[in-house]
């Protein structure tokens, strides 16, 4: 089985994926990920916006039958996190006991390994969320 | 304006067809539909398919299937809209007839899913999501639906048991359908005891990975008459609508509203001149039990947050006010993704001709709703007995 050439694909997004950089339009709408056109008002005047990375879990699941490339990590928690700046982001949760995950649980962003052990050999990093480290 | 009628319908049983390939299944369904209409040639072919490339290393399905079905040098293309590919292909076929450019159009939906390893199939189904921002994080399609399911249960106070009722209803109807993958009724306990695949979503909340093909022949009433197709076979395509929503679930305005279905349904209702209360049966896209609940709400059959209540109140059974999944739905008939919308169309045709194995008495108007992605690409079509 063959996969797309991954290196260029993932380097293209490394700033967004390592630092949680999204977009903000001239009318103040913030969104993630960054895109050319504001999804709220249609403005094309969009600049980068770096999110604080703090948020709350609004829904979560435990992935038990993962897509290929992620078998090694199963089971793993995946969540929708509402950022304090507004947008919702999909990401894995880390450093948490699945039993402890709950609605409204406070989390913060952290850069982690997303996967390795793939035929293309590259190790992917990106954002995950964890309970805040005090 | 011209009118469009379906004059032929055919399908293959849904299942794990180890001995049949993509082209065998597609050609069989197509020839069944042509035989049903009593014709041996068509002006064009539209193929509904989602992921034949990754699954069986075959694209260019228009040429492949038209060639192997002996249709000659006609125009033929594949239409892709994730799991709504079949519904979209039917609508493209209808548009070709309504435009006047083509008179007799064949549509076939096909997916051959069991020729790949399960975790790869899981990955390919994920291609309907956002590759860079969902699949990248290890989100399977099931996982995305599980996120919606948990949020729905929390928001409206439903339990896993409540949503299981959709699966029970689908299996009760599928048990009578000779073309269904699962022909056994199940109990709520069966669903609840099945293993979690992405909590709180269990194996029996989900439709199966399978193979299948279905086909219809579309033309105008004038041409149908000219071809000598008996009027009892005609089913009018009365209304249709289609819309998209954000491909990325996290970017939705409201996680619990299938906005694309809502917009598509409004267009279809308007074109057909009907309201939800005039519809005799609904074939909704229950790839997961949660999607059946949200679909009933988006179609205006239930109020927001009350889709699951409809199942609890017993209103979705074949003899109730809002029968759904009359031939098993995606859950029991099976969900060969790109073929599903065409199966729904074939089943609507059988109901409206009075030929369905679990017949809704005196059915005159039926609705099909086909979802691509986690609600990102949706078709709604309304059919009427002529
Ligand atoms: Zn804006």
TrEMBL record, chain A:
Species per Swiss-Prot/TrEMBL record: Thermococcus eurythermalis
Top-rank taxon: Archaea
Gene3D superfamilies: 6.10.30.10
UniProt domain ChsH2 C-terminal OB-fold: residue ranges: 50-111
Name the UniProt record assigns to this protein: AcaC
Domain ChsH2 rubredoxin-like zinc ribbon: 16-47
Pfam families (alphabetical): OB_ChsH2_C, zf-ChsH2
TrEMBL record, chain B:
Keywords per UniProt: Acyltransferase, Isoprene biosynthesis, Transferase
UniProt superkingdom: Archaea
Catalytic activity, EC: 2.3.1.9
Class in the EC hierarchy, top level: transferase
GO biological process, one term: isoprenoid biosynthetic process
InterPro entries, per the entry: Thiolase, Thiolase-like, Thiolase_C_2, Thiolase_N
Coiled-coil residue spans: none
GO molecular function (one): acetyl-CoA C-acetyltransferase activity
Gene3D superfamilies: 3.40.47.10
Domain Thiolase C-terminal: 241-384
Glycosyltransferase is among the record's keywords: no
PANTHER family: ACETYL-COA C-ACETYLTRANSFERASE (PTHR42870), ACETYL-COA C-ACYLTRANSFERASE (PTHR42870:SF6)
The protein, known as: Acetyl-CoA acetyltransferase
Source organism (scientific name): Thermococcus eurythermalis
């Amino acid at each position: 089985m063959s996969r797309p050439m991954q290196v260029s694909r993932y380097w293209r997004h490394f700033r967004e994926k390592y630092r949680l950089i999204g977009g903000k339009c001239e009318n103040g709408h913030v969104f993630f990920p960054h895109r050319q056109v504001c999804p709220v008002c249609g403005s094309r005047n969009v600049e980068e916006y770096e999110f604080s990375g703090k948020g709350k879990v609004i829904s979560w699941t435990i992935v038990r039958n993962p897509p290929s490339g992620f078998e090694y990590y199963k089971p793993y928690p995946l969540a929708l996190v509402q950022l304090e700046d507004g947008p919702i982001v999909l990401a894995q949760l880390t450093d948490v006991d699945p039993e402890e995950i709950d609605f409204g649980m406070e989390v913060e962003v952290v850069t982690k390994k997303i996967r390795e052990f793939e035929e293309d050999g590259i190790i992917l990093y990106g954002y995950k969320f964890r309970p805040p480290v005090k | 304006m011209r009118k469009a009628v379906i004059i032929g319908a055919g399908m293959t049983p849904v299942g794990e067809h180890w001995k049949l390939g993509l082209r065998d299944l597609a050609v069989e369904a197509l020839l069944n539909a042509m035989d049903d209409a009593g014709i041996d040639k068509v002006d064009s072919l539209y193929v509904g398919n989602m992921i034949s490339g990754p699954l069986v290393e075959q694209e260019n399905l228009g040429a492949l299937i038209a060639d192997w079905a002996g249709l000659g040098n006609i125009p033929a293309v594949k239409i892709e809209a994730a799991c709504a590919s079949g519904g979209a292909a039917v609508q493209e076929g209808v548009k070709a007839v309504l435009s006047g450019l083509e008179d007799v159009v064949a549509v076939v939906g096909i997916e051959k899913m069991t020729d790949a390893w399960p975790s790869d199939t899981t990955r390919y189904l994920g291609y309907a999501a956002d590759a860079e921002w969902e699949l990248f994080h290890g989100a399977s399609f099931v996982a995305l639906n599980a996120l919606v399911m948990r949020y729905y249960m929390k928001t409206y106070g439903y339990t896993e048991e409540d949503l299981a009722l959709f699966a029970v209803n689908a299996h009760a109807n599928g048990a009578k359908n000779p073309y269904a993958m699962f022909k056994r009724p199940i109990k709520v306990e069966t669903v609840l005891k099945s293993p979690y695949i992405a909590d709180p979503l269990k194996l029996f909340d989900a439709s199966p990975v399978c193979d299948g093909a279905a086909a219809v022949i579309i033309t105008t009433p004038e041409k149908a008459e000219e071809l000598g197709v008996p009027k009892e076979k005609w089913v009018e395509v009365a209304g249709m609508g289609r819309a998209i929503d954000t491909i990325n679930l996290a970017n939705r305005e409201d996680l619990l509203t299938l906005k694309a279905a809502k917009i598509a349904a409004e267009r279809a209702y308007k074109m057909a001149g009907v309201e939800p209360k005039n519809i005799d049966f609904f074939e909704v896209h229950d790839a997961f039990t949660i999607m059946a609940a949200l679909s009933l709400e988006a179609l205006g059959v239930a109020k927001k947050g009350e889709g699951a209540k409809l199942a609890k109140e017993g209103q979705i059974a074949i003899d109730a006010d809002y029968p759904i999944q009359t031939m098993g739905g995606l859950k029991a008939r099976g969900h060969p993704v790109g073929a599903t919308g065409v199966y729904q169309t074939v089943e609507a045709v059988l109901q409206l001709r009075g030929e369905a194995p679990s017949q809704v008495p005196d059915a005159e108007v039926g609705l099909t709703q086909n979802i691509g992605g986690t609600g990102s690409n949706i078709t709604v079509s309304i059919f009427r007995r002529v």
